[in-house]
C-alpha cells in the first residue's frame, strides 16, 4: 500500500491505486490518491453568530471553510474554489456520518468539545479567543486528515460539507447513516463472547488503552508543570517592585536597579505567551488520545462482524446436526457422529428427538427434512457472504490501521520536535532577558 | 574656666581649625555638624587629642583608629591586603559532655605584630561568638560584622553536610570582613583568636571583664534612640536608610525563598514527567527511540534545574541573610551612638542649667533665703551658693569634655565604618545580583543544548536518510506532517515550522 504521505505517487503507482480502488470502491472519475494532492483547504476566521428562536438565543462560533484547486490539470473535476461557514456541531455531524459509513477506517477525531487538562490560567470558556483559535487549528487538521485519506476524501457528503452550505444537513440525515451504526448491546456481547477473536484486534484494543493512559499521564503532569512555571515567573514581578523601591534610597546604584527591575517585569510577563504556545503541544497529544477511541471503534466493529460470523456458523452447525439426526431417524440408521455432542453444544439427544420428531408422521418428517435442508443451503450462502465481507473488512481495517501507525510515528516525531523547538525558543528568550539584566547589574 | 560656648574642647586641645569657631547657633558646638560638607578627614583631625597628658590606652587606640578609619577603601585590595584567613575542614569532636564541630582557621600574614607568617588553629562556633562579643564590647561604636545564627531555622541537624557547608561559608565571610577592617583586625583578641593554641586560647578567653549584657545594653539604647532630639542630620539619614534597606532586604529574602520553593515544586513534577515518556515507549516500536529521547531531555533539564536551585541557595539566600544580620548590627551601633550622644546632651543641659543658676544667684537677693533665715549673712549665703555652683560647673565641664570626645570619636568611627560598609555593600550586592543573572543564563544555555540534542535524536532515523530531507520540504506539503501544519492565520505554527527547518538544516 503506497504511503500516501511521502511523495507524489508516480504514474505507475497511480494506476495500481486505481485498479485497487476499482475492485473495492466505486470511483466516479480517475484521480490521484487523495484530495490534498490537488486541492488546498483552510479553516479560518472564526466569528460569533447569534440565532434567535422563539424562546432562546443561541450563540455560537462559525468557521470559514475554504478550498481552492491547486493543480491546473484537475480544474475540470472540481470547482475552482469554494467557501462555506460551518459550526462545530456540523463538523460533529460529518464525523459521525463518516464513522458509521466507513467502518474499516480509523476516522480522524475532532477537537474536544470542552476544554480538559487546563492549568490555572487557561480558559475554559468556549468563546475565549485563545480557545477558539486552538479549536480552529484543530478543525483544520481534522479536515486535512479527512481530505488526505484515499477513501474518505471521495465521499459525497464530505464534498457537500465543503461546498453546500444550505441543505447539507438534510442530505446527511437522508443517508440514514445512524442505522448502520452497530447497536451497543451487540457490541457488548461481541466483546465478551468471541470464540476465535483475531489476536491482532485484541492487541490493538490493548494498545489503544495503553496509548490513552500514557497520554493522559503526560497531559496531567503537564498541567501541574504549567501551574508551577507560571508561579515562578510571576513571582519575579515582585523583584521588579522591590528593586524599584530600593532604588529610591540609593544614589549610585539607583539607575541600574530600576533598569534591572524592568527586565524582571519582562521575565514575569514572558510566561504568558510561552504557555499559550505550549497549548499547541497539548492539543496535538489530545488528538492522538482521541485517535485511541477511533482505533477502538474499528476493533468493536471487527468484533461485531466476527460475532455475526460465529453466530452464523453456530446456526449452521445446529441445523446440520438436526438434519443429520432427522435423516438418521427417517432411514433408521445409527445416529451419526455429528449428533453426538460435537460442536460444543450439549445436546440431549432424547430431548431433541422428542421435541423434533415426537408424534410426527413420516410425511411430516420428510417435510421437515426438506425444510431443514433448504434452511441449511440458505444459511450456507449467507455464511459465505458474511465470511467474505468480514474478510474484506479485516483486510481493509488492517491496512488502514497500518497507515494510521505510520502516520502516527511521523506525526509524533514532528510533535516532539516542535515541542523541543518551543523549549529552545523559551531558553533563548530567557538568556536574552537575563543577559540584559546582568548588563544592568554590571553597571552598579 | 573653659568657655563652653565656643570651643567645646579642652584648653590643651591644640588642633582647632576655624570651622570649630564659626557659625554656632547651637548651644554646643559639635564639630561634626559643621563638617557635613567638608572632608571627613578634617573633622576627625579637629578633635584629635595630640597632647599626651591625659592619654590613656583607650586614647591611643582611639587616635590610631581614627587615622586608620580614613585610609581609603581602595587600600584594602588583594594587592595591599596583608592578612589572609581561610576557614575550612569541619571536624566533629566528642567529649564526655558534648559533641561539637570545629573548623580549621588558617592565617597567612606579613604583619609585624604577628610572630610568624603562618598559623593554623581549630576553632568552634562558640569561639567565634566570644570573639565577636569581645570586639563589640571594645569597639562598641564600630561596625563588627555579623555571625550566622546559632541555630538554623530549617535544618535541624547541626552535623549535616549541608548545614556545615553553609556555616563554614558564613564564618569565612565573617573573618574576611574582619581582616579587611583597618581597626578591628589589629585588635589583640583577633590575633589571639587566629594564633593561640587550644589551651592558651581557653586561658585567654577567661580573662577580661564580663560586660554589660547585650540585652540591657540594647534596651537602654533603644530608649535613647527614641528620645533623641538633636540627632545630626547625617545620622538621621543613616537611620532612615538602614531601616528601609533592611525592609527591602527582607522582602528580597522572601521573594528568593518563594522562587526557590516554586522551582522545587516544578522540579518535583518534572522528575515525574520523564518516566511517563519511558512508559509510553514500552508500548511502541518505531516511536520508542523518539520517546526515550524526550524522556532523556526532560531528565537532563531536571538536573540543570536542581543545580540552579542548589546554587541559588548558596549564592543568593545565604548572602541576603548575612546582609540582613549586618543591617541589624548597624541598627544596634546607631542606637549605641545615639545613647552616647544622649549622655553628652544630658550633661550639656545640666551644665547650662547650672550656669544659668549661677547667673541668677549672682543677681539674686538672698535676703529671704533659707540660709538668711537661719541667721547667716545673705552675702555669705550668696557666695556659698556661687562656690557650690562653680564646683559643679567645673565637674560638669570636665565630664562634658570627656563625653564630647567620646561622642566625636563614636561619630567618626561610625561614619568611617558606614562609608566603608556602603562601598562593600555596593560591591557585594553587585556580585550577588550578577551571580543571580549568571546562574539563570547558564541554566537556560544548558537546557538549550539539551533540547537541540533531543531534536537531533528524534529526527534521526537509522535506515531512512531521506527522512531528514523530507523534513526540509516546504510546509505546503501538508500530507507529510499534517500534525505540524495549520495553514492560514496560525502564525506561531508556521513560525515553528520554519524554525524547525532551520534547526534540522544544521544537522549534519
UniProtKB/TrEMBL annotation, chain B:
Belongs to the sorting nexin family. Residues 81-201 form the PX domain. One of its GO terms (molecular function) is phosphatidylinositol binding. This is PX domain-containing protein. One of its GO terms (cellular component) is phagophore assembly site. It is a peripheral membrane protein. Gene3D superfamilies: Arfaptin homology (AH) domain/BAR domain, Phox-like domain. InterPro entries: AH/BAR_dom_sf (IPR027267), PX_dom (IPR001683), PX_dom_sf (IPR036871). The lineage of its organism: Eukaryota, Metazoa, Spiralia, Lophotrochozoa, Mollusca. Residues 1-10 have a biased composition (Basic and acidic residues). Residues 39-49 have a biased composition (Acidic residues). Residues 1-54, 463-508 are annotated as: Disordered. Signal peptide: none annotated. Residues 496-508 have a biased composition (Polar residues). Residues 484-495 have a biased composition (Low complexity). It is found in: Cytoplasm; Endomembrane system. Keywords: Cytoplasm, Lipid-binding, Membrane, Transport. GO terms for biological process: autophagy of mitochondrion; endocytic recycling; piecemeal microautophagy of the nucleus; protein transport; reticulophagy. Transmembrane segments: none annotated. The keyword Cytoplasm applies. It comes from the Eukaryota. The keyword Cytoplasm applies.
Amino acid at each position: 500500500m503506497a504511503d500516501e504521505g511521502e511523495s507524489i505517487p508516480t504514474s505507475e503507482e497511480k494506476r495500481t491505486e486505481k485498479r485497487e480502488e476499482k475492485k473495492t470502491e466505486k470511483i466516479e472519475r480517475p484521480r490521484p490518491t487523495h484530495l490534498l494532492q490537488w486541492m488546498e483547504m483552510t479553516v479560518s476566521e472564526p466569528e460569533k453568530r447569534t440565532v434567535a428562536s422563539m424562546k432562546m438565543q443561541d450563540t455560537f462560533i462559525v468557521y470559514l471553510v475554504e478550498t481552492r484547486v491547486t493543480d491546473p490539470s484537475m480544474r475540470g473535476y472540481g470547482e475552482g474554489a469554494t467557501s462555506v461557514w460551518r459550526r462545530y456541531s456540523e463538523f460533529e455531524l460529518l464525523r459521525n456520518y463518516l464513522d458509521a459509513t466507513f467502518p474499516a477506517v480509523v476516522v480522524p477525531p475532532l477537537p474536544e468539545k470542552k476544554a480538559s487538562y487546563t492549568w490555572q490560567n487557561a480558559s475554559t470558556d468556549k468563546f475565549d479567543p485563545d480557545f477558539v483559535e486552538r479549536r480552529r487549528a484543530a478543525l483544520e487538521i481534522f479536515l486535512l486528515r479527512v481530505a488526505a485519506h484515499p477513501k474518505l476524501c471521495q465521499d459525497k457528503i464530505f464534498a457537500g460539507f465543503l461546498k453546500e452550505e444550505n441543505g447539507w444537513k438534510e442530505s446527511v440525515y437522508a443517508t440514514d447513516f445512524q442505522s448502520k451504526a452497530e447497536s451497543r448491546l451487540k457490541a457488548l456481547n461481541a466483546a465478551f463472547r468471541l470464540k476465535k477473536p483475531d489476536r491482532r484486534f485484541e492487541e490493538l484494543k490493548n494498545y489503544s488503552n495503553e496509548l490513552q493512559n500514557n497520554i493522559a499521564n503526560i497531559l496531567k503532569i503537564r498541567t501541574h508543570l504549567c501551574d508551577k512555571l507560571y508561579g515562578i515567573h510571576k513571582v519575579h514581578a515582585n523583584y521588579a517592585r522591590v528593586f524599584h523601591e530600593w532604588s529610591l534610597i540609593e544614589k549610585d546604584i539607583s539607575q541600574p536597579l530600576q533598569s534591572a527591575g524592568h527586565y524582571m517585569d519582562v521575565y514575569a510577563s514572558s510566561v504568558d505567551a510561552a504557555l499559550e504556545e505550549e497549548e499547541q503541544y497539548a492539543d496535538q497529544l489530545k488528538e492522538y488520545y482521541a485517535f485511541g477511541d477511533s482505533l477502538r471503534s474499528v476493533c468493536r466493529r471487527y468484533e461485531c462482524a466476527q460475532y455475526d460470523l460465529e453466530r452464523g456458523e453456530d446456526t449452521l452447525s445446529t441445523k446440520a446436526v438436526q438434519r443429520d439426526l432427522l435423516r438418521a431417524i427417517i432411514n433408521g440408521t445409527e445416529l451419526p457422529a455429528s449428533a453426538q455432542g460435537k460442536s460444543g453444544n450439549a445436546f440431549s439427544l432424547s430431548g431433541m428427538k422428542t421435541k423434533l420428531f415426537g408424534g410426527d408422521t413420516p410425511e411430516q418428517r420428510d417435510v421437515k427434512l426438506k425444510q431443514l435442508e433448504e434452511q441449511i443451503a440458505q444459511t450456507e450462502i449467507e455464511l459465505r457472504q458474511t465470511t467474505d465481507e468480514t474478510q474484506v473488512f479485516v483486510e481493509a481495517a488492517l491496512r488502514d490501521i497500518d497507515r494510521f501507525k505510520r502516520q502516527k510515528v511521523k506525526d509524533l516525531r514532528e510533535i516532539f520536535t516542535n515541542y523541543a523547538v518551543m523549549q529552545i525558543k523559551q531558553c533563548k528568550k530567557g538568556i536574552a532577558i537575563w543577559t540584559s539584566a546582568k548588563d544592568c547589574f554590571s553597571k552598579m | 574656666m573653659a568657655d563652653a560656648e565656643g570651643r567645646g574642647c579642652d584648653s590643651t586641645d591644640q588642633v582647632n581649625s576655624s570651622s570649630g569657631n564659626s557659625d554656632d547657633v547651637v548651644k554646643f558646638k559639635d564639630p561634626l555638624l559643621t563638617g557635613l560638607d567638608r572632608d571627613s578627614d578634617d573633622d576627625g583631625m579637629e578633635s584629635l587629642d595630640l597632647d599626651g597628658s591625659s592619654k590613656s590606652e583607650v586614647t591611643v587606640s582611639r587616635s590610631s583608629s581614627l587615622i586608620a578609619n580614613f585610609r581609603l577603601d581602595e587600600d584594602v585590595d588583594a594587592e595591599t591586603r596583608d592578612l589572609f584567613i581561610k576557614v575550612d575542614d569541619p571536624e566533629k569532636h566528642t567529649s564526655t559532655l558534648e559533641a561539637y564541630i570545629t573548623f580549621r582557621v588558617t592565617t597567612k600574614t606579613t604583619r609585624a605584630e604577628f610572630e610568624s607568617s603562618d598559623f593554623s588553629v581549630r576553632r568552634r562556633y562558640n569561639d567565634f561568638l566570644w570573639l565577636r562579643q569581645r570586639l563589640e564590647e571594645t569597639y562598641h561604636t564600630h561596625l563588627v560584622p555579623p555571625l550566622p545564627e546559632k541555630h538554623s531555622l530549617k535544618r535541624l541537624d547541626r552535623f549535616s553536610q549541608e548545614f556545615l557547608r553553609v556555616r563554614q561559608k558564613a564564618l569565612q565571610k565573617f573573618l574576611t570582613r574582619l581582616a579587611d577592617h583597618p581597626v578591628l583586625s589589629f585588635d589583640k583578641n583577633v590575633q589571639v583568636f587566629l594564633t593561640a593554641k587550644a589551651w592558651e586560647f581557653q586561658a585567654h578567653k577567661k580573662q577580661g571583664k564580663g560586660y554589660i549584657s547585650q540585652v540591657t545594653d540594647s534596651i537602654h539604647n533603644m530608649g535613647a534612640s527614641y528620645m533623641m532630639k538633636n540627632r545630626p542630620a547625617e545620622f538621621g539619614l543613616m537611620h532612615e536608610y538602614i531601616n528601609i534597606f533592611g525592609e527591602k532586604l527582607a522582602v528580597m529574602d522572601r521573594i528568593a525563598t518563594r522562587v526557590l520553593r516554586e522551582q522545587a515544586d516544578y522540579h518535583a513534577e518534572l522528575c515525574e514527567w520523564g518516566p511517563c515518556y519511558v512508559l509510553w515507549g514500552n508500548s511502541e516500536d518505531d516511536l520508542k527511540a523518539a520517546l526515550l529521547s524526550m524522556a532523556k531531555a526532560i531528565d537532563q533539564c531536571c538536573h540543570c534545574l536542581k543545580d540552579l536551585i542548589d546554587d541559588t541557595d548558596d549564592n543568593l539566600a545565604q548572602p541576603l541573610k548575612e546582609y540582613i544580620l549586618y543591617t541589624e548590627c548597624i541598627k544596634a551601633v546607631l542606637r549605641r551612638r545615639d545613647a552616647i550622644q544622649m549622655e553628652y546632651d544630658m550633661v550639656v543641659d545640666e551644665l547650662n542649667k547650672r550656669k544659668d543658676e549661677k547667673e541668677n544667684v549672682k543677681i539674686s537677693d538672698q535676703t529671704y533665703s533659707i540660709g538668711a533665715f537661719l541667721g547667716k549673712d545673705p552675702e555669705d549665703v550668696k557666695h556659698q551658693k556661687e562656690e557650690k555652683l562653680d564646683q559643679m560647673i567645673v565637674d560638669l565641664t570636665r565630664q562634658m569634655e570627656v563625653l564630647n570626645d567620646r561622642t566625636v570619636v563614636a561619630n567618626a568611627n561610625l561614619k568611617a565604618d558606614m562609608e566603608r560598609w556602603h562601598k562593600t555593600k555596593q560591591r557585594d550586592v553587585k556580585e550577588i545580583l550578577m551571580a543571580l543573572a549568571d546562574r539563570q543564563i547558564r541554566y537556560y544555555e544548558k537546557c538549550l543544548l539539551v533540547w537541540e540534542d533531543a531534536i537531533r535524536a528524534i529526527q534521526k532515523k537509522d535506515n531512512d536518510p531521506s527522512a531528514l530531507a523530507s523534513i526540509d520540504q516546504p510546509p505546503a506539503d501538508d500530507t507529510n506532517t499534517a500534525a505540524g501544519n495549520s495553514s492560514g492565520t496560525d502564525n506561531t505554527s508556521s513560525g515553528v515550522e520554519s524554525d524547525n527547518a532551520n534547526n534540522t538544516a544544521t544537522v549534519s
